[in-house]
Protein: Junctional adhesion molecule 3
Organism: Bubo bubo
Amino acid sequence: MSCAISYYLLFVFPGCRVSAVELTSSNTKPVVQEFQSVELSCIIKSTVTPDPRIEWKKIRDGETSYVFFDNKMQGDFATRAEILSRTSLVIKNTTRMDTATYRCEVAAPLDTKTIDEINIQLTVQVKPMTPRCTVPKAVPVGKTASLHCHENEGYPKSTYSWYRNSEPLSPDSKSNAKLQNSSYTLNPTTGTLVFHAVHKGDTGRYSCIATNDAGFAKCEEQEMEVYDLNIGGIIGGVLVVLAVLVLITLGICCAYRRGYFANSKESGESPGKNQLISLQR
């Protein structure tokens, strides 16, 4: 029966029902943590076809592949997925690669509208791995010090927070009375902590925590020491080197004046002369 005839019958005979397959879902954007199970809800809201055809497809990075086709699970889903309540899809032991758009398609040939589909956007959250932290061991007073913290396994992307001696460092150093003497910039997105001019109070044990919606991970504490430059010692060392150079220069000059280098040259030439006289004889 064509759609035009169906609508005509509905107008002439109000009691005549025109049916079209229609889908709905209890959750079109499910979120699950990695290695857990998730249900992708696909519900047939209306149909007169007793046994409609069900298909599930996965769309990721612009590529489409079958999940459920010809009443069978496809690919790696064969061992970790199943159909629930006729049309919904349950995925077990989810991985980060399951993050994608899933399309539920239903074909009902006895309905006036024979095909309907609904998209489900699945997000699989992944806990952060232990971040890699880089902390300088020793920095002189007044110099710049850069501390780095990063991990690339978590999803969604991690944000970062720094701790000194197990106490959190505020993103704004001026907002904490204990840190007003510190001058630093903390970027929670990149995990970089930069001291613009360290002072003795910045000495301590530093650690970083990476956090996202799935959990957090922490790197081990690392010690950073801020030390004073011994200006007097440096100047003294330079003066000693200069004095040594002056003494060496004076020694060389005295040696030249006393003829040590000339005598050595003459003594080096004497054997050659004696050797020449012997050959002439």
Q: What stands out?
A: The chain is about 20% helix and 35% strand. The first helix runs from residue 3 to 12. The two ends are 138 Å apart (CA to CA).
